[in-house]
Design brief:
Elements lengths: L22 E5 L5 H10 L6 E5 L5 E2 L5 E2 L6 E8 L11 H13 L6 E4 L3 E4 L7 E13 L2 E11 L15 H5 L5 H15 L6 H10 L7 E5 L5 E9 L5 E5 L2 E5 L6 E4 L1
Parallel strand pairs: 1-2
Antiparallel strand pairs: 2-5, 3-4, 5-9, 6-7, 7-8, 8-9, 10-11, 10-14, 11-12, 12-13
Helix pairs in contact: 2-4
Length: 265
């Protein structure tokens, strides 16, 4: 007879270290933190809201891919931001968020890396790796101007059986020990808050991102809407955050919103 997993403790707001000016709320369950924060933004919520759920029941990833995790096994949250940068720099928000999560996890997971455009993974040398975090950033129009809803989902405490796909992993699986989620959330929020200023220096962000991006330097298949697939070498990240791919016919660039998948060939 299989024993039930030990109860997972809830997040502890009293011990959470929140960045200055950010307001953290924790709810037991919600279909999607991004949808909830976007609704509140349209109703007049000010930037700085962080909505965390212990159980997201209808989460959405890029291109509306759905996913769900067991209650209290992840860090699933959305942050409402109004970046004070030119519109052209907003395309860097998903990459900046990935870089912030990667930086926050690096002490625990030495092989943590980024897969363009919006995955944080544990690098196994294949270029695919084991996904530990997904990111979804959405622009929302409000009466006070556009805002960004930055959604993050980190697999923290899932067992192998609880992971949604074979190529996923969790922080605890990689470290071999339980992870205290409240402290980890404090780290991730602090990293994201502290790195926002880098949006003013896109070239520095581009270089920092490229240094930990395992997509670069590999031959990849770029899957486009409509079923087209283009193969080439991932050469660089350009000034807008798009991926530059070299082929025998010359280089082409693809933005995050223009691809279905980018996978190692």
């Amino acid at each position: 007879m299989t024993s039930s997993p030990a109860p997972r403790p809830p997040l502890d707001l009293d011990r959470l270290t929140a960045p200055a000016g950010w307001r953290v709320e924790v709810v037991e369950s919600t279909p999607s933190t991004n949808a909830a924060v976007a609704e509140r933004a349209r109703a007049g919520e000010e930037p700085g809201l962080v909505l965390v759920t212990e159980h997201q029941t209808a989460g959405r990833g890029r291109l509306d891919r759905s996913w769900e995790t067991p209650a209290r096994s992840s860090l699933t949250f959305s942050v409402l931001l109004r970046p004070d940068v030119p519109p052209a720099s907003w395309s860097w928000l998903p990459l900046l968020t990935g870089y912030a999560v990667q930086a926050a996890l690096a002490d625990r997971l030495p092989d943590v890396a980024l897969k363009w455009p919006n995955d944080v993974l544990v690098d196994d040398g294949s270029g695919t790796g084991r996904k530990v975090c997904g990111i979804l950033v959405e622009r929302v129009e409000t009466s006070a101007g556009p805002v960004a809803v930055v959604g993050v989902g980190i697999n923290v405490d899932q067992t192998l059986d609880e992971l949604p796909v074979a190529l996923a992993t969790s922080v605890s699986l990689e470290t071999g020990e339980p992870v205290e989620r409240t402290g980890l959330l404090s780290q991730v929020l602090g990293s994201l808050h502290g790195l926002q200023g880098v949006l003013d220096d896109v070239e520095s962000l581009r270089r920092a991102y490229a240094d930990v991006c395992v997509t670069l330097g590999r031959t990849v298949d770029v899957h486009l809407p409509g079923g087209d697939v283009r193969r080439g070498e991932a050469l660089d990240i350009d000034a807008s955050g798009a991926l530059v791919v070299g082929t025998d016919d010359g280089a082409f660039t693809v933005a995050a919103g223009d691809v279905v998948h980018v996978r190692p060939a």
